[in-house]
Specification:
Blueprint: H1 2-16, E1 23-27, E2 34-38, E3 42-51, E4 65-78, E5 84-92, E6 105-106, E7 113-116, E8 122-125, E9 129-130, E10 146-152, E11 157-159, E12 165-171, E13 175-181
Antiparallel strand pairs: 1-3, 2-13, 3-4, 4-5, 5-10, 6-9, 7-8, 11-12, 12-13
């Protein structure tokens, strides 16, 4: 009986010590620079990831993550009224990866490492923890990308899901000049 109580306390403390799984978004383009993209080119790409869940549903203690997809804004040209035509493509990736399907691999930092797994995934590095994403556990479902088209009136800007703002400098029939500014800029 005493052993079961002790085991219950250990399991409860492990579950309580795990952080919640969180999803993050990060802008791939530089902030502050004047950028140029052709018709069909990306204005902004926002990558999404989430914490690798552990056996108790909390975040991985090693800080490993799983790809959760991306959002891409694509320049589609100019409308007759001068407004900017934009297409937003959303790809959401569902994964069954967890700490049970992706255990950490430990090596010493003094020797270069070339590690491989039985799933034919390979990792290179000299870090203490090397994460290998095996093809078997990565993507459980990736639905058809969801896309929406809209126009932005002249002299207007576009706020991204990450909080930055796209300022349009010049919209020409074949290219777009723009700048992405941060929240405090």
């Amino acid at each position: 009986m005493h052993g079961r109580t002790w085991l219950g306390i250990v399991v409860a403390s492990m579950v309580a010590g795990c952080a919640q799984v969180q999803q993050r978004q990060q802008l791939a383009e530089p902030v502050g620079s004047v950028l140029r993209t052709p018709v069909g080119g990306a204005i902004a790409t926002i990558t999404k990831d989430r914490d690798l869940p552990n056996a108790f549903g909390g975040a991985d203690i090693y800080g490993r993550t799983v790809d959760a997809g991306f959002t891409r804004l694509v320049y589609r040209g100019r409308a007759t009224d001068g407004s900017i035509l934009v297409e937003q493509v959303n790809v959401d990736v569902q994964s069954n990866a967890s700490t049970l399907t992706r255990p950490p691999i430990i090596n010493t930092p003094t020797q270069p490492a070339v590690l491989s797994s039985r799933e034919r995934a390979v990792a290179y590095g000299t870090l203490r923890t090397v994460s290998i994403a095996s093809p078997a556990d990565q993507v459980a479902a990736m639905p058809i990308p969801n896309a929406a088209q809209f126009s932005i009136p002249k002299q207007r800007s576009l706020t991204l899901p990450t909080g930055q703002t796209v300022e349009f400098i010049a919209a020409e029939p074949h290219q777009l000049l723009f700048r992405i500014v941060g929240q405090g800029m």
